[in-house]
From TrEMBL:
PANTHER family noted in UniProt: BUCENTAUR RELATED (PTHR23227), CRANIOFACIAL DEVELOPMENT PROTEIN 2-LIKE (PTHR23227:SF67)
Signal peptide range: none
Coiled-coil segments: none
Protein name: Endo/exonuclease/phosphatase domain-containing protein
Native source species: Heligmosomoides polygyrus (Parasitic roundworm)
InterPro entries cross-referenced by the UniProt entry: Endo/exonu/phosph_ase_sf (IPR036691), Swc5/CFDP1/2 (IPR027124)
Length: 192
């Protein structure tokens, strides 16, 4: 599932993508459709605007940098094929994986718990040049807390309190945004 919201604040436009990528057990077709749509919508964002991609990207980028400029080697676990896809997308669009940029305790990195399994599957990606925003996000990192759920929110984005959009800009932003679902109907295993 992919949702895009555009906010104009402090003289800049912020393109916020909320993403839920197909799980590892889903078909390659479903994954290709999701990543193609995210790639297309990211490419449409003007270069002067801010991009923030946040969500459950259902991949493991691992702890090793392995030559990726978007990864500083501060992630968790090992990389899988879906994690490789995340890093390739980030590299292509000059995005930084904020989760792998700052040294923090392992408990802050883990965003999914299931029995003895732990993983980092929730990510925040921003343009490399938006280092100031990245530093604000670093200051907002909060410890993970399990409250009867298999996932935890580890990064809290700064709250935007002022929105300076005309009615026409808001209408255009809504019209340009798309919401697409890639849930169980595309999953071979029947899980979403």
């Amino acid at each position: 599932m992919l949702m895009k919201v555009v906010i104009a604040a402090e003289g800049r436009r912020y393109h916020l993508f909320s993403a839920y990528a197909p799980q590892t057990g889903c078909s390659e077709r479903a994954k290709d459709e999701f990543w193609s749509l995210l790639d297309e919508k990211t490419a449409e964002v003007p270069l002067q605007d801010v991009i923030i991609v946040a969500g459950d990207l259902n991949g493991h980028v691992g702890a090793a940098k392995d030559g990726y400029g978007c990864h500083d080697g501060l992630g968790f676990g090992s990389r899988n094929a879906d994690g490789e896809r995340i890093l390739e997308y980030a590299e292509f669009h000059d995005l930084t994986n904020v989760n792998a940029r700052f040294r923090k305790p392992k408990s802050y990195l883990i965003s999914f718990y299931n029995g003895n399994s732990k993983a980092q599957i929730d990510f925040v990606l921003v343009r490399n040049r938006d280092q100031g925003l990245e530093r604000s996000i670093k200051d907002q990192v909060v410890p993970s807390e399990r409250k009867g759920s298999s996932w935890t929110s580890c990064i809290r984005l700064p709250t935007v309190t002022t929105v300076d959009e005309t009615g026409q800009n808001a209408t255009n932003a809504i019209r340009d945004s798309q919401c697409c679902a890639f849930r169980s109907r595309h999953c071979e295993t029947g899980t979403a």
